[in-house]
Amino acid sequence: MRWDEVKEIAPLYVIGALDEKTAHDLEASLHSATPEQQGVVARWREVAALLPQALSLQTPPDYLRERLLNRIVEETQQTPIEIAVEESSLEEMAERDVLPFVQPRRPESRTARWLLIAATALLAFTAGYLVKQNADLARERHALARERDDLSKEMAAWRGQVDDIVSPRTRIIVMAGDETPQANAKVVWDTKAQQWVIYIFDLPAPPSDKDYQLWYVTKNAKISAAVFSTDAQGQKVLKLILPPEALSGLAATAVTLEPKGGSPQPTGKFYLKASI
Fold it and tell me: What is the CA radius of gyration of the chain?
């Protein structure tokens, strides 16, 4: 029996409303079910155990109580002869293949039956709602886990930057705006790895036919370091490895505005510069 079939008839199984073969097939399927699937049937059993509490208690009528007490008194007052006669009568009836009268089973209360059906429907709806809630919570939990991981990575990156800045091997160079006074930049120089990380702020985006160009300025040459543009906030981060020719006699660094794609040598105005 497939799990979807087991799940569909599980409410009927826990209240004993299945025929013997179907119930046997369902129980056989449960033996190979996962713990989560077995838990679904277990929750149905718990709800079924609470169904009798939904029925109001019925007080038996006074005449029934009186009849029962009278019957008990009559039976306790029977003489041995009366008991023997009654037993003899029962034996004669059995010999004649006559079945004694059996009180018919009182029909099931319609109210109780409808309460059971309503409770089963309510339980099915509640189970579906809880499954959906669990799925939503699982998605939220996964989203929060991803967000936490992203924040952890971001914090690790910032810690790395802070460690680089405060390291004894790190040197900070401040570039000031020239053509654009509001612009500025910080060069974080790892003197051991000879690596620059440049954080540029408030430098307006260049015209569509222009680019900014960063230069290493030595005593004998101006060496192109990078061609770049800034974003809408005027920001940019550059990561550079200093070439050997720039390390020899490095005296300054500067940013100029050049034609699109850059120039072999500076031709435009200085927008950022710093002495080293």
Answer: 45
| Of 257, 188, 177, 252, the residue nearest 221 (C-alpha) | 252
Whole-model pTM: value is 0.45
pLDDT digits (tens, 9 = 90+) for 146-181: 989 888 888 887 777 666 666 778 899 999 998 889
The tens digit of pLDDT for each residue in 184-216 reads 999 999 999 999 999 999 999 999 999 999 999
Is the predicted pLDDT of residue 97 greater than 60, yes or no?
no
